[in-house]
Amino acid sequence: MLQLQSLSLRRGPHLLIDQADVTVYPGQKVGLVGYNGCGKSSLFALLLGELQADTGGAAIPNAWTIAHVAQHTPEGPREAIEFVLDGDAELRRIEAELRQVESSGDGLRQGELLGRLEAIDAYGAESRAARLLHGLGFAPGEERRPVNDYSGGWRMRLALARTLMCRSDLLLLDEPTNHLDLDAVIWLEGWLRSYSGTLLLISHDRDFLDAVTGHILHLERQQLTLYSGNYSAFERQRAERLAQQQAASERQQREMAHMRRFVDRFRAQATKARQAQSRLKALERMELIAPAHADSPFRFAFAPAETLPRPLLRLDQVAAGYGGTHVIERVALSLNPGDRIGLLGRNGAGKSTLIKVLAGVLTPSAGRMECAQALKIGYFAQHQIHQLQLDESPLAHLRRLDPAATEQALRSYLGGFGFAGDRALDPVGPLSGGEKARLVLALLIRQRPNLLLLDEPTNHLDLEMRHALSEALQGFDGALVLVSHDRHLLRVTSDTLLLVDAGAVRPFDGDLDDYPAWLAGRASKDAVLESTGNAAASASDGKDRKQQRRQAALSRQSLQPLRQREKTLEQRLDSLAARRSRIEQALSEPNLYLAEAKTQLLTLLEEQRQVNAELEETEEAWLEITEALEHARQCEEG
Predict the structure, then answer these.
(1) 175 and 248 within one domain
(2) Same domain, 18 and 109
(3) d(C-alpha 129, C-alpha 137), whole Å
(4) What domain count does the chain have?
């Protein structure tokens, strides 16, 4: 078992954990939660031997194999599947020794090693690795591509697959869902539920924690407390304790009263009944968990939109895609104030493509898009984080957006997003990914949009910020379109679920809990179609095969410009990644932070910002191209 005994841990002058005593038994699945920066990742570093305890220690059985995802982005020319197979260290060790033994002619040792390979199912290892890659979203056939061919997000999926490949006794996962879409998150849930070892999981996805964990280890005010049950059970237990803090509870109740007033005001109006009912359901859940978040540092709300025209935006038979290939077709959609739409669909189906069309980033190739004259869009996508000015403060960003507001008003507003006091004046550059995402959201909300388009807004946000965002969205009076792998956010903010699949956008027949079953059915259908297609191909006559080859050749020819563009973008990604690595190496030099080197530091920070922005744009373009090629491949197979 894993034991923390009188453990105290510091990072610099900051005490993170004070005299902790915790026991985790073999096979337990434990979620580690707490505010960003409280010390969760530092505890993992301690368990991995990368940090030393100030007092006490952690006892882990010597025979245990520990697996964790490396923090650095993998790179190299190795095939993806070979990189994943490297996660099974014993397999690779035996293979290496077997090559040496075969050359030396030691038949006895060779037999022993072959027996051990049989015992660890080495002959099924490649199949297991391929299943891991497929589960995490890699298309069949992609496993032979070099690691360097993939963008940063997909490389992190490779790193996760490599970790899962390890036959471990203790698995440490730090935010494993950050780079995954909803399909991959659902698959990972199933894999972790069947994992037989001990799991310590850091995650800010409450539905994911609920599905996987049976205990919650809460780090708060330097204290570690182990709760029985999943995250929802932890919230209830903690809520019961915090409910006694009357002052904080009263503040929470005022926010609940605001939502009740909306329900009481609009539940009788036919045009608002659905929105009122949705808020009523969300309110019931929020009232249950509200006291558990009464001490959250985040407090913000959407100001009423200046105008709310009806409709805000309309799509009529719209098609869109990349390089002449349509990803979505014949889309008809009307957005009105109060609409709450969550988008579902497999990776590459076109969810982000639809969001970009709505945002005006991608021009439809067919059909008509009509926008209200007073339409004001708030669009959140991950690439916008890299467009922040790294040498400027959060206050400077906000002042540029709202120059007429007083400094006190702007600082009070930023305080609701966790930028209180001097943090509002510090440069953006050193902020974490989650802090930058909070700032982008703060800037977006300040613009008072009447149409919100959110594409994975919760990446890198902690549980408290996610809860605050879900509460704020309840009070938003415009229309919302949301893509997210956070099912709790989808559940409490979406009234309507639309499925993006096979180029079409249509209402999803069911609720969010039915989506995993739809995914399983879709996968089975694909397998049947593939099998049927193979049988039909083998039974077709020579003339049909000749015609199919001719059509395939024409298809390959039409896609050649896309493939050439893909290759060019991949080369550009490699170049930018190498340039970013050189900049990060330069920024690691201590002398750069001396007063006399300030000019050089600012120059490097600006160059880093530009490279990150260009890398994000290039990566996004590459993803669009690969999405289009994947869609074309699916059309050919279908």
Answers:
(1) no
(2) yes
(3) 13
(4) 4
Which among 174, 226, 222 is positioned nearest to 45, based on CA atoms?
174
φ/ψ of 537, rounded to 5, equals -65, -40
Axis-axis angle for helices 152-165, 182-194 (nearest 10):
10
pTM of the model: 0.69
Rounded to 5 degrees, what are φ and ψ at 400?
Answer: -65, -30
Chunked into runs of 10 residues, the chain (638 residues) has average pLDDT values of 91 88 94 86 91 91 92 85 93 89 81 87 89 90 88 89 94 91 92 94 92 94 92 85 60 66 64 61 59 66 90 94 88 93 90 93 93 94 83 92 92 90 88 86 93 91 86 90 92 91 91 86 67 50 50 54 73 79 76 77 81 77 69 56
* Structural domain that includes position 282: 243-293
Helix (H/G/I), strand (E/B), else coil: 44: helix
189 touches 513 (CB < 8 A):
no
Tokens 């935006």 locate to 313
Helix runs in 368-420, H state only? 394-401, 407-415
Q: Are 356 and 500 in contact (CB under 8 A)?
A: no
Scored b (16 or more CB within 10 A) or e, 309-340 reads eebbbbbeebbbbbbebbbbbebebebbbbbb
**Is residue 499 within 8 Å of residue 344, measured between CB atoms?**
yes
Could you give phi then psi for residue 419, rounded to 5 degrees? -110, 65
Cα 487 to Cα 497: distance, rounded to the nearest angstrom: 12
C-alpha–C-alpha distance, residues 491 and 275, integer Å:
13
In a domain, 519, yes or no: no
